[in-house]
Amino acid sequence: MIQIRKRGPEPPESSPGRFLPGHLVRHRRYGYRGVVVSVDSTCHADEAWYQSNQTRPDRDQPWYHVLVHESTQTTYAAQSSLMPDPIGGEIDHPLLAEFFAGFADGYYRRNDQAWPLQ
C-alpha cells in the first residue's frame, strides 16, 4: 500500500534553504533523524570546526541546526547531507519544548525562542 502524507509548509522564496524550522530530516550518511531548529544561509562554523568535519560538505550552501532523535545531541549539518525524514513521526529530544510549541501533520510548530539558547 502506498502511504500518502500531507505536504507540510514549503520554504518561501526568500528562504535560504530547502528545510524550515520544524521540518523532520534524516542524515544521508549517518542515518539519524532529527528536527530543524534553525537555518544559516552558509556555514557559520569556524575553520577549525569545519576542518575537523570528516566529510567537509561545501560551506556555501544552507546549514541546519538539528535536534537529534533519541539523543541529547544537536548537530550542524549541510543541506546536501540531509533529506526529508521518510518516517515523519515525532522526535524525542530534551530540548523540544524549548523551541517548539507543538507537533501536527508531521511538522513541529516553532516558538519564538532564538537559537542558540540565550
Q: What separation lies between the terminal Cα atoms?
A: 46 Å
The low-confidence parts are: 1-8
Question: Which CATH class is shown?
Answer: Mainly Beta
CATH topology-level name:
SH3 type barrels
Estimate nothing, just give the exact number of structural domains. Answer: 1
Using the CA coordinates, give the radius of gyration. Answer: 14 Å
Q: Helicity level, as a percent range?
A: under 10%
What is the structural class? Answer: mainly beta
Tally of helical runs:
2
Specify the biggest β-sheet: 5 strands, antiparallel
Morphology:
globular
Topology record:
Blueprint lengths: L23 E4 L5 E8 L6 H6 L10 E6 L5 E5 L3 E3 L11 H4 E5 L2 E4 L8
Antiparallel strand pairs: 1-2, 1-5, 2-3, 3-4, 6-7
Fold and architecture overview:
The protein has 118 residues and is mainly β. The chain has one domain (24-109): Roll (SH3 type barrels), CATH 2.30.30. The chain contains 2 helices and 7 strands; from the N terminus they run E-E-H-E-E-E-H-E-E. The protein has helices spanning 47-52, 96-99; strands spanning 24-27, 33-40, 63-68, 74-78, 82-84, 100-104, 107-110. The strands form 2 sheets. Strands 4-3-2-1-5 form a 5-stranded antiparallel beta sheet, with no helix packed on it. Strand 1 (24-27) and strand 2 form a beta hairpin. Residues 1-8 have low confidence and may be disordered.
